[in-house]
Every structure is written in structure tokens, then in C-alpha cells.
């Protein structure tokens, strides 16, 4: 087989069309053409074509992953799920993930820290809810435990107390037992521990 023509694509100057034996064979990024030194009148075999096309597929996967990372940090699982949804092969996904980790574009520890900070500051979540949310993001349990250890128990109590104080007026027409039950359920859904909730209720519901 011989490459008979290589031409720049009309709608994308960064891509070229490759013709083999006078028939269109495939399109690819121009840097891949240079990387594999593809030239007109060059003899080429199936093995080399597969190597070139795999590089093209890997380039597409990297682009997809980088676009996905534009908006916010992502966990490894989120990247994997996104690329699987786009139809990329597992070996391509593995290589893409290794590329992202090499340049520290994906780091589950840093992701977990940032995620915890956001959920504490923006959503006022407690550690149990944060742990559950991180687990859903595919974060390893050892990483979750390590990150949550940085969450001070006193800070947790103060956050729960302030949250409960703001919520308490909405129960002004309820009796003590109803307030105890509703406020406790509210804090539980937010992800605070039973010990923390008990202390808050003891402080506020008298």
C-alpha cells in the first residue's frame, strides 16, 4: 500500500486527509502526520496504519478529557466514565488517564480536598454526607478517610450549631418533640454525626 495524497482539510487547517492507493483512508491531526513522518509516495502497511490511528484516537481522548477539566477539577472515575460514554477503548482511556496524572491534571487527593472545602463552605455538609458524595465520585476510601481527618470536630459542631440556629425559626409553631425530631432529621440529612447532632439539640432545644 502507498500513500498517494495528503491534503489539508478545508474546514480545519489543523487536520489532514490521507489517501492510500488513490482512495480516502482516514483523517488525522497534522502533528500526528509529522510525528509518524507520513509523506506522499510512502509505502505503508496495516500495522503502521493501526499505530497512527491509535495515536489519533488517543489525541481525541486527551482533548475530550481536557475539555471536561475546563470547568472544574474531576476525579479519576469521572474522567473514565466520561470517556467510556464517548466510546473510547479501555486502553485509550488508561493511556489518557496516565497522561493526565503525569502532568498532575488529575489528582484524587487534591480533588477530594477541594470537594470537601466546597461542600463545607457552600452546602454546609457534614462529614458523613461528604464521605458519601466522595464515594459516589469514585474516590478511594483510604483517600476519603485521610481527607476527612483534616476536618476538625470542633469546627463540625460549630457549623452544625450555626446551621441549626438558622433553621430553628422555621419550626416556631412546633412543640419541643417535633422540633427535636425535625431539626435532628435536617442535620442528619446534611451529614452530621449523631454525637454532633445530639450536642446541638441539647444546646438549642430546651
From TrEMBL:
<feature type="domain" description="RecX third three-helical">
    <location>
        <begin position="154"/>
        <end position="201"/>
    </location>
</feature>
<feature type="domain" description="RecX second three-helical">
    <location>
        <begin position="107"/>
        <end position="148"/>
    </location>
</feature>
<protein>
    <recommendedName>
        <fullName>Regulatory protein RecX</fullName>
    </recommendedName>
</protein>
<dbReference type="InterPro" id="IPR053925">
    <property type="entry name" value="RecX_HTH_3rd"/>
</dbReference>
<dbReference type="InterPro" id="IPR053924">
    <property type="entry name" value="RecX_HTH_2nd"/>
</dbReference>
<dbReference type="Pfam" id="PF02631">
    <property type="entry name" value="RecX_HTH2"/>
</dbReference>
<dbReference type="GO" id="GO:0006282">
    <property type="term" value="P:regulation of DNA repair"/>
</dbReference>
<dbReference type="GO" id="GO:0005737">
    <property type="term" value="C:cytoplasm"/>
</dbReference>
<dbReference type="InterPro" id="IPR053926">
    <property type="entry name" value="RecX_HTH_1st"/>
</dbReference>
<dbReference type="InterPro" id="IPR036388">
    <property type="entry name" value="WH-like_DNA-bd_sf"/>
</dbReference>
<dbReference type="Pfam" id="PF21982">
    <property type="entry name" value="RecX_HTH1"/>
</dbReference>
<dbReference type="InterPro" id="IPR003783">
    <property type="entry name" value="Regulatory_RecX"/>
</dbReference>
<feature type="domain" description="RecX first three-helical">
    <location>
        <begin position="61"/>
        <end position="100"/>
    </location>
</feature>
<comment type="similarity">
    <text>Belongs to the RecX family.</text>
</comment>
<comment type="function">
    <text>Modulates RecA activity.</text>
</comment>
<keyword id="KW-0963">Cytoplasm</keyword>
<dbReference type="Pfam" id="PF21981">
    <property type="entry name" value="RecX_HTH3"/>
</dbReference>
Amino acid at each position: 500500500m502507498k500513500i498517494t495524497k495528503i491534503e489539508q482539510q478545508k474546514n480545519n487547517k489543523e487536520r489532514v486527509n490521507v489517501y492510500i492507493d488513490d482512495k480516502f483512508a482516514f483523517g488525522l491531526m497534522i502533528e500526528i502526520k509529522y510525528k509518524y513522518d507520513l509523506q506522499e509516495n510512502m509505502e505503508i502497511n496495516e500495522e503502521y496504519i493501526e499505530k497512527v490511528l491509535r495515536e489519533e484516537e488517543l489525541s481525541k481522548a486527551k482533548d475530550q478529557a481536557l475539555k471536561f477539566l475546563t470547568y472544574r477539577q474531576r476525579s479519576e472515575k469521572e474522567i473514565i466514565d466520561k470517556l467510556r460514554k464517548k466510546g473510547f477503548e479501555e486502553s485509550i482511556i488508561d493511556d489518557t488517564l496516565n497522561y493526565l496524572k503525569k502532568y498532575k491534571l488529575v489528582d484524587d487527593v487534591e480533588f477530594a480536598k477541594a470537594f470537601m472545602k466546597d461542600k463545607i463552605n457552600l452546602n454546609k455538609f457534614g462529614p458523613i454526607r461528604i464521605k458519601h458524595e466522595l464515594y459516589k465520585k469514585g474516590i478511594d476510601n483510604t483517600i476519603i478517610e485521610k481527607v476527612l481527618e483534616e476536618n476538625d470536630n470542633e469546627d463540625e459542631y460549630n457549623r452544625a450549631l450555626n446551621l441549626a440556629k438558622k433553621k430553628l425559626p422555621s419550626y416556631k409553631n412546633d412543640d419541643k418533640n417535633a422540633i427535636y425530631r425535625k431539626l435532628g432529621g435536617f442535620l442528619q440529612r446534611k451529614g452530621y454525626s449523631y454525637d454532633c447532632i445530639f450536642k446541638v439539640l441539647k444546646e438549642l432545644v430546651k
